[in-house]
Structure formats: C-alpha cells, structure tokens
C-alpha cells in the first residue's frame, strides 16, 4: 500500500466517523444507569413492583386517609427528576407529585447493577421525614443541600404537609447538619412551594461556614437567597424571572409543552477578581440568558434592579432546564429540552445563536434531560421523558429513565464552544 493511499484511507475513515458523529453525536456519552421502572430497597424490604412488597403500616407514606389502592407503592408514579453525584454515590430524587412514592431522596452506588434499586438517603427513617425534593446539590465542603418543598403535589389533592425547608447533610457522616424553614416572606402564595425545584450553593473557598444558597421559584417567579452564617433568607423578584410568552409551545416527544415555568436554573461562575461570582440564569420557557453579580444577591439591602444583564439569545428551540458552568473550559452546559440535546456556550463569546453548540443530541436517550450536573471534568445528565408521563404514557416494558455521563472535552470537541 502506498503511503498516499494509506493517508487517504485514514482521511476517509475520519470523515466517515465525523459525519456519523454529526448525525447523532451520542457516541460521546457513556450510559451509566437505565431503568424501565423505579424500584426501592427500604430497610431490606424490596419494592420491586406494585404487588411484590410487604403492605404494612410501615410502608404507608403520608397518605393514611387514602384507599388501599392509592396509599402504598404505585411503581408507575415514581418518576426520577433530580440527581447529584458524589464519589461512588449518585443521589436520585423522586418528587411526590403522585400517590404511591415511598421515598423522595435516595441514592444508588456506582459500579453495581445498571438498573439499581433506590435506597432512602441518609437512612430509611428519612423516607417519612422528607415530603418532596427535586434537584439537590453537593458543595465543595462535602455537604448535600436539598430543598424539601413540604408539598404533597398530587393533582387535585395538594397538601402542604410541612413548611418548605433547606436541609443540609454531611456526606462524610451522613448526618443532618441543619434544617432551615423558609420564611413566610420568602413565599408568595400556595403555589410557590411547588416551584422550588433547584438549589445552587455559593461557598466561600476560604470558609465552609460562609455559604449562600440560591433557590429558584419557577412557579411564582422569584429567587430565594439563604445565608448560612446569618441563618436568614430573603426573596428577590425581577421581571427577568418570568417566562417569555414568545418561547411557549415547544415540543418534546411529540407533545406541545405549554408550561409557563419561570426561572429554572442558576449557574455560578468561578470567583471574579473582586471576590464575587456571576450568577447565570434563565426561565425554562425562554431562549435568553441573564446574569447578575452575586454581590447583589448576597446583600439583602441591595437591589438587583438595574444590575441584571441580558446576555443575549441562544436561538430557536433552545429552551433549557438545568445548566452548569465548567470553569476549565469556560463553558455553560444546558439541558436543552426542546431539542433532546446538551447545548454549550463559551462565556467569553457573545451570546448569539451562532455561538451556541449542540454538544450531544439523541431523540431517544436524551428526551427531556431533567437535570444536568458537572462533577470534575464530567458532565452528567438524568433523562426522564416526563412529557410522555404527563401527556400520554410511558411503556414500562422499555427503558424510560437514564443517567449518562460524558467527558466535557469530548462533548465540546468540534463545536463552536471548543477553545482553539
Ligand atoms: C413483580 O416482581 C416479581 C419478582 O420479580 C415477579 O415475579 C412478578 O411477576 C412481578 N409482578 C408484576 C405484576 O409485574
Ligand atoms: C414579590 O412579588 C410578590 C408577588 O407580586 C409579592 O407578593 C412579594 O411581596 C414580592 N416580594 C418582594 C421581596 O419584592
Ligand atoms: C401557544 O399556544 C397557545 C394556545 O394554542 C396560543 O394561544 C399562543 O399564541 C401560542 N404561542 C406561541 C408563541 O406559539
Ligand atoms: C466583579 O467583577 C466582575 C468582572 O470581574 C464584574 O463584572 C462585576 O461587575 C464586579 N462586581 C462588582 C459588584 O463590582
Ligand atoms: C478557574 O479557571 C481559571 C483559569 O481560567 C483558574 O485561574 C482558576 O484557578 C480556576 N478555578 C478553579 C477553582 O479551579
């Protein structure tokens, strides 16, 4: 074989490979877990399906007044929505938006089965202490932060069982560090609790005691700030937290989404030269991105009015849920629900459609990325197809829920987000 021919063959293979990559660049992604349906292991009792578990007083969770058919485990109703990664543990939340959910905050172990049973975190007792949790967060001080909305969010049977609260666990000892009930002034009305779907933690690198948490309220359009040192919280309103009517009606898995979800995700930059961070945020129903310096969030005497920046527009069908900033590559990664994709944007570039890349896309295994996290240089996603659950039905016989991971360098390679 002549060297020239060898070279051509290599180019040909490369071209073929990159065109395949372009068609469905899902090959950058490693499947970690997949589930047809969610099952649990609670105190050694397995909840494998609607019939295979022990029906006893101790397996009733909050719903004592219900009929027998409603108050125990109803497997189909268990839809995972949020997650977080710490060492060899992956936390998986199942908000109580229907009856029959035995535990809202759970974990599974990496390196075991590909469809593991969920165990309540930190222990079985907590399956009854927490009402409903969405997207938790691990901070740089080995702590797990969760918001318990306190709301049994079952359609036509909503019950606020406890005040919404921030609960923080020590991941080394698996003990609660503190619980903080949000104040009445943090909340607008009875809908607010159901909108507290994520928490972002801003820790002073020099002191774990100096931490702030930012909670999005997508239901009544606000941001709640919590100061760990002051043990105090306050609410911020701003018009940029509202959904954009022009971005309504995108579709997922053939279902038109008419949710009017406001501010959905808050992503923090690394420390700026002046010791604060940039908080990037967007409503779910929007194609814009906004930012504000955390100096204006952390000081309750300051207003963000006049300090919010409209960074730009990501382009059509870029409606996204969770997003996270990765410092090493200076990119934001988005759970883009309107295109079954992970989007990227390098924050050093102007935010406009040409500068937003599709880092991965798959119309089967990335259908509704419900949560996205960055751990080191890995990007993790939890996929749950929730529009199918809400508008039609999931097929319990096939894989419905996924957790995938990818190296960030692989994800952005060949996209506009790659640093040249
Ligand atoms: C429930 O799980 C058990 C054990 O895996 C199995 O034998 C049984 O057929 C399942 N029942 C249903 C209704 O799926
Ligand atoms: C935010 O807006 C809500 C609804 O209009 C209002 O009830 C609440 O008092 C406002 N809170 C602050 C801190 O501005
Ligand atoms: C979304 O759908 C509603 C109801 O069909 C319609 O009134 C509205 O104009 C639509 N908006 C957009 C931006 O498509
Ligand atoms: C902090 O620095 C960043 C850039 O490094 C700047 O955008 C921001 O406005 C500064 N914040 C304050 C409160 O001065
Ligand atoms: C973030 O990246 C910058 C360089 O872009 C680096 O100087 C800084 O140390 C990084 N921060 C962390 C926490 O790794």
UniProtKB/TrEMBL annotation:
This is L-dopachrome tautomerase yellow-f2-like. It is found in: Secreted. Residues 1-23 form the signal peptide. It comes from the Eukaryota. It comes from Galleria mellonella (Greater wax moth). The lineage of its organism: Eukaryota, Metazoa, Ecdysozoa, Arthropoda, Hexapoda. Belongs to the major royal jelly protein family. Pfam families: MRJP. Keywords: Secreted, Signal. InterPro entries: 6-blade_b-propeller_TolB-like, MRJP/yellow-related. Coiled coil: none annotated. Its main location: secreted. The gene is LOC113514800.
């Amino acid at each position: 074989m002549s060297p020239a021919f060898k070279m051509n063959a290599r180019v040909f293979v490369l071209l073929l490979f990159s065109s395949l990559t372009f068609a469905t660049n899902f090959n950058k992604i490693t499947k970690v877990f997949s589930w047809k349906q969610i099952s649990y292991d609670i105190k050694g009792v397995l909840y494998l399906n609607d019939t295979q578990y022990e029906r006893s007083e101790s397996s009733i969770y909050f719903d004592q007044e219900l009929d027998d058919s409603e108050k125990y485990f109803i497997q189909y109703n268990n839809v995972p929505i949020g997650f977080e990664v710490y060492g060899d543990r992956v936390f998986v939340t199942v908000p109580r938006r229907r009856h029959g959910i035995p535990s809202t905050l759970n974990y599974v172990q990496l390196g075991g089965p590909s469809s593991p049973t969920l165990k309540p975190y930190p222990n079985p007792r907590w399956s009854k202490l927490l009402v409903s949790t969405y997207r938790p967060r691990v901070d740089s001080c080995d702590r797990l932060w969760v918001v318990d909305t306190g709301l049994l969010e079952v359609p036509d049977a909503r019950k606020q069982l406890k005040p919404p609260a921030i609960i923080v666990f020590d991941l080394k000892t698996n003990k609660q560090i503190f619980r903080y009930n949000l104040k009445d002034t943090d909340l607008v009305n009875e809908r607010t609790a159901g909108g507290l779907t994520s928490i972002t933690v801003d820790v002073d690198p020099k002191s774990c005691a100096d931490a702030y948490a930012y909670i999005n309220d997508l239901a009544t359009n606000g941001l709640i700030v919590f100061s760990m040192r002051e043990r105090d919280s306050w609410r911020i309103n701003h018009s940029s937290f509202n959904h954009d009517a022009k971005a309504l009606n995108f579709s997922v898995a053939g279902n038109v989404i008419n949710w009017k979800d406001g501010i959905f995700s808050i992503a923090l930059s690394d420390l700026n030269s002046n010791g604060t961070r940039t908080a990037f945020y967007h409503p779910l129903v929007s194609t814009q991105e906004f930012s504000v310096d955390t100096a204006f969030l952390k000081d309750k005497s300051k207003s963000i009015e006049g300090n919010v920046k409209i960074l730009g527009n990501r382009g059509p069908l870029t409606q996204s849920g969770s997003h996270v900033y990765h410092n090493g590559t200076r990119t934001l990664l988005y759970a883009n629900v309107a295109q079954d994709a992970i989007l990227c944007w390098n924050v050093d570039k102007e935010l406009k459609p040409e500068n937003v890349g599709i880092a991965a896309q798959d119309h089967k295994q990335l259908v509704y990325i419900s949560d996205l996290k960055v751990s080191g240089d890995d990007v993790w996603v939890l996929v749950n197809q929730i529009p199918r659950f809400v508008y039609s039905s999931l097929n319990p016989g096939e894989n419905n829920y996924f957790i995938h991971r990818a190296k960030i360098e692989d994800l952005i390679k060949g996209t506009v987000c790659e640093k040249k």
